[in-house]
Amino acid sequence: MSKTPNLNSGAALVVAIGAASFGFLGIPVRFLGDNGFSAMDITMVRHLVTAVALFVIILVVDRSLLRARPRDVLLFALFGAFKLMSDVTLFKSQMLIDLSLSTLLQMTAPYYVMVFSLFLFKERITIQKMITVIVAFIGCILVTGIVTGKHDDLNFVGIACACMSGLFFGMFTLGCKIGADRQYAPMTTMFYIFLFATLFSLPLADDAMVLGSFANAEMLLYILVLGFVLSLLPFYCTTWGVKRLEVTKASLISVMELVTAAIVGAAVFGEELSAPRIVGMFLVILSIVIMDVKIWGKIREHRRSKGVSADGHT
Questions:
Q1: Residue range 67-107, pLDDT digits in tens
Q2: Is the Cβ–Cβ distance between 228 and 63 less than 8 Å?
Q3: Rounded to an integer, what distance in angstroms lies between the CA atom of residue 264 and that of residue 100?
Q4: What is the rounded radius of gyration, in angstroms, for the C-alpha atoms of the chain?
Q5: Cα dist. 178→8, 65, 113, 195, 271 in Å?
Q6: Which conformational region is residue 41 in: left (phi greater than 0), alpha (psi within -120 to 50 degrees), or beta?
Q7: What's the whole-model pTM score?
Q8: CA distances, 76 to each of 112, 173, 197, 248, 308 (Å)
């Protein structure tokens, strides 16, 4: 019992580091975008570098991690497709709108999961859920600047892409939750998801241009930072940490991504961080945490009723 607080504290720190790292994604994304990369190109190179790195690590550490049941291959492929679409739409939005807004809208994934849960787990639409949706909507309005009149440069394509990213990320997350009982190691799941995402993106990206950019030292640096520092490491930190934390703590800590993105946007790209925007972000964060905790609590309860063990976020 005496070791539990220390374990939880260590896991919380690891999750916080992982979540905060994701908030820096806008830096390499915008740099690569300014140098001719499309959102699909950035997605492809991110997944390629991460998949190759995972493959090498698995070969060195434990080759048995490459084993996957044939019936699960299609599941990994589905997760890979959702991850691909989530990243493409997120990166496109980060090129068009403020980093804090694009990150915020992707974080609305729990609301899409709520809709899916209505059908998968026969949940009801309660007054409490409706209130959280309304609070989140008000928060989003404040963040966009529509109420304050500071929306002249608002890009609706960027907003649509960020919302779609939330949708696809929600589908990806829900799929990981449902498949968590298959007892795959985090590294195995990550490898196959990034592998399939890479395979799906290859015919859609400008492969020759992307591979040619590896010859440029500065481009290569940003690509490696994107693939290693801002993908492989934070994904592993998040996957490892959330399995050792309660859903409430994991949800609260995950908002570090939005905080970091807002700070990076203001400090690096001169994006406005006004009082209404801060209030809006707080409202959305509050509603997301409440919704996220309730959804995964329900899913855990549903799975336990069927005799299936439930892990934390994947």
A1: 988 888 888 899 899 999 999 999 999 999 988 888 888 87
A2: no
A3: 9
A4: 19
A5: 24, 20, 12, 20, 38
A6: alpha
A7: 0.81
A8: 21, 12, 9, 27, 20
